[in-house]
Structures are given as C-alpha cells and as structure tokens.
What we know:
It is a single chain. By secondary structure, the protein is mainly beta. The chain is 8% helix and 62% strand. The chain has one helix and 18 strands. It has one helix at residues 2-18, and strands at 21-23, 28-30, 33-36, 39-40, 43-49, 52-60, 63-71, 75-82, 85-94, 99-106, 109-117, 123-130, 133-141, 147-154, 157-165, 171-177, 183-190, 196-202. The strands form two sheets. The protein has a 15-stranded mixed beta sheet with strand order 1-5-6-7-8-9-10-11-12-13-14-15-16-17-18, with no helix packed on it. β15 and β16 (171-177) form a beta hairpin. The protein starts with a helix and ends with a strand. The model is unreliable at 1-18 (pLDDT under 50).
Amino acid sequence: xKLKVIIYLLFLTLYSCSSQSINKSDLTFKGNLWYxxxxxxxxxxxxxxxxxxxxxxxxxxxxxxxxxxxxxxLIWRQGAYVKGNKDGSWNGFYVDSTKAFNGAYENGxxxxxxxxxxxxxxxxxxxxxxxxxxxxxxxxxxxNGQVSDSGQYKNDFMSxxxxxxxxxxxxxxxxxxxxxxxxxxxxxxxxxxxxxKNEKEFINKN
Length: 206
C-alpha cells in the first residue's frame, strides 16, 4: 500500500513538473483567445494574489476549459468553462471567503436564479435570468435586509409596477415602467414617515 502511495505521489510530482504553467500577466488576450508570444497557449495558468501563487485553471489552444478560479479586486469566483464559455454553477466570494453570489451560466450567458449577499451574509438581491437578461420578479435589499426596491424585468428592462422603500421600511415611491424601462402613468412619492407628498404623471412614450 505504501509503495502505491509513493508511486502515485511520484507521478503527481513528475506530472506537475512536466506540465507547462505560466503567469496570467505573461499572456495576451485578443479575439477571445489567449496567446503566448503570438502562439495559442495550452497549459496551466496561475496568478500572484496577495504575494501567493494561485492556480487559476487550464487553457487548451487559447481557450479556457474545465474548472477555473478568477480573482477580482473585491470578489473571487469559481466555476467551469466549456469551449471558452462559462457553463453550469458559478459562485463568488469576498476576500475573506464569505459568499458574495451564486448562479448559473449556459453557453456564457446567465440563466435561472441568481442570489447575492453582502459581506455580513445578508441577501441583497434575488432574481431570474433568461439567456443573459433579467426577467421576472427581482428583489433588491439594503445591507440591513430591508427591501429597497422590487418589480419585474422583461429582457433586462424594468417593466410594469415597481415599488421603492426607505431603509426604515416605509414606502418611498411607486409607479410603472413601459417595455423600454421608461416611467409611465402616475407615480406616487412618500416621505420617510409614509405620508404622500407628491404625485407625478408620465407620458407613455411607446
């Protein structure tokens, strides 16, 4: 048994030594492909993050494939690529590894239910995507968990009735949008104590 483990570890060592690995900063991205010295790159890619070497994933002929980790200034994310497109479940995390978002991709486009959280773990948004565009009911929240605004999207445009609230939970304003995301009809505006303070009529520009 010990001999098998030693052989396996030796294999991993030899494999890692023979596999090409390069810093992402040494690659060039153009035409949705990754190049090294004007040649399509195949191999492992890493990035130096806060003075540590982090393996990001692998490229095949300049295209991201399989599992990847990607680092931004505030959030890092992980998920899979298929032929250079994000596909399947993706999750995002803050620097301290607190979860920031989760959702799914299909052929590089956001689909299905997406959720987001702040650094304290409070949910701050929730809604659906269809082929990369917001559709259906979306809910946004303040950092204290109170709903800030909610309504429907159609193909990425606010549509129909929307409501907005103050951070204390009092209704701020309410009204409707047309299919182009423009305010229409009568909008009502309230003060922080919930008292109606103004009304405004919008012309339907459709």
